[in-house]
User: Which sequence fits this backbone?
């Protein structure tokens, strides 16, 4: 009954469910990274990103006014004020507990009075109003530290992006790394496409001795790990004077990307109608004219498909950049390497790491969604006759 026209087999529903699950698994961390990039460090540490739209209970450390704010009232030295004033916190905060020691941040309820170690007492209300009293003059330049547990409303900020993109500190700013990554990625995507297109046309439509061996060599190079060639290739680059720079990195990415590019484009071009090429030759068109005016326009899906792969692989690359783009001053640091440095210098600042990571994946996402319609067409081209 599954084969009757107009009905769907159970396998179809299983495929749909599997695809939906894969999409959810892919979107879950991406959306979480995006939401976390707009949250503060306190919010990230206190609740998950899925609670970003709801109030969260957080532990805050605030200070009362110092000794210079004390007044003598009826023989008692008094310091009064509000703990939340000047703390860049939203208005209308109601605390649920407070304390004077980090060992017990919720020792007292709002309205309770606590004894201070240096003498005197402190009373804190739910809205943050406090009153410190002491029979003797209060000393010390810094105010009393108070640990507050309160429910804060949702808060989103662009400060993380300002710090990551526009900070003058080399360890924080990713603006320079962003343009460095573009400098590496764009040529490393265009150069192998240009070379592979010529090579694929020759292997698909031109007869010459050794063509079958070249095709076999291209297929064999697909399974060679790039790690095997890193050190020998780096030594070659250093010997000829193109190491430690963009040129060596472009050539390395070109060499590692060419086997897949030639294989993909050749399979596509060989599936194009032979009559078109033969008619063009009969009309007197040269091989270069056939390639530029017929083959390239018809091969756009395959070119776009490889461009997506090469762009994503080059943009997200760390290993090749670490080996071939050596720079102690940080002037040619790419984004993946910059994130690694942030993990070392700001390992506890999750808001900075989330923002830097999302900035890094934003461009590949745009490229993928803009050209995804060509991806499957290019990959499946030449698979059937």
Assistant:
């Amino acid at each position: 009954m599954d084969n009757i026209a107009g009905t769907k087999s159970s396998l179809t529903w299983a495929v749909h469910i599997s695809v939906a699950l894969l999409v959810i698994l892919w979107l879950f961390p991406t959306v979480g990274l995006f939401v976390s990039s707009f949250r503060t460090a306190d919010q990230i540490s206190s609740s998950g990103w899925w609670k970003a739209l709801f109030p969260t209970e957080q532990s805050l450390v605030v200070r009362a006014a110092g000794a210079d704010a004390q007044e003598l009232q009826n023989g008692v030295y008094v310091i009064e004020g509000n703990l939340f004033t000047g703390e860049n916190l939203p208005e209308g905060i109601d605390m649920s507990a407070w304390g004077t020691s980090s060992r017990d941040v919720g020792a007292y309820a709002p309205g309770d009075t606590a004894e201070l170690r240096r003498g005197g007492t402190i009373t804190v209300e739910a809205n943050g109003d406090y009153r410190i009293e002491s029979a003797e003059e209060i000393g010390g330049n810094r105010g009393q530290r108070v640990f507050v547990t309160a429910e804060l409303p949702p808060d989103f900020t662009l400060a993380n992006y300002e710090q990551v993109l526009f900070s003058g500190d080399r360890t924080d700013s990713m603006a320079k790394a962003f343009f460095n990554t573009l400098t590496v990625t764009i040529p490393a995507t265009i150069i192998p496409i240009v070379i592979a297109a010529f090579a694929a046309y020759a292997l698909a439509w031109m007869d010459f001795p050794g063509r079958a061996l070249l095709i076999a060599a291209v297929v064999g190079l697909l399974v060679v790990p790039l790690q095997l060639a890193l050190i020998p290739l780096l030594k070659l680059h250093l010997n000829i004077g193109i190491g430690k720079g963009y040129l060596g990195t472009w050539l390395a990415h070109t060499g590692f990307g060419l086997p897949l590019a030639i294989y993909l484009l050749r399979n596509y071009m060989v599936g194009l109608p032979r009559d078109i090429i033969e008619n063009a030759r009969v009309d007197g068109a040269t091989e270069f004219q056939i390639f530029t005016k017929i083959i390239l326009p018809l091969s756009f899906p395959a070119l776009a498909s490889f461009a997506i792969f090469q762009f994503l692989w080059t943009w997200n690359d760390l290993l090749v950049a670490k080996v071939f783009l050596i720079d102690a001053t940080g002037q040619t640091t790419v984004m993946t390497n910059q994130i690694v440095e942030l993990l070392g210098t700001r390992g506890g600042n999750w808001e900075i790491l989330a923002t830097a990571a999302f900035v890094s994946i934003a461009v590949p996402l745009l490229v993928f969604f803009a050209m995804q319609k060509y991806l499957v067409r290019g990959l499946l081209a030449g698979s059937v006759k």
In short: The chain has three domains: 10-51, 56-152, 163-380. The longest strand covers residues 56-63.
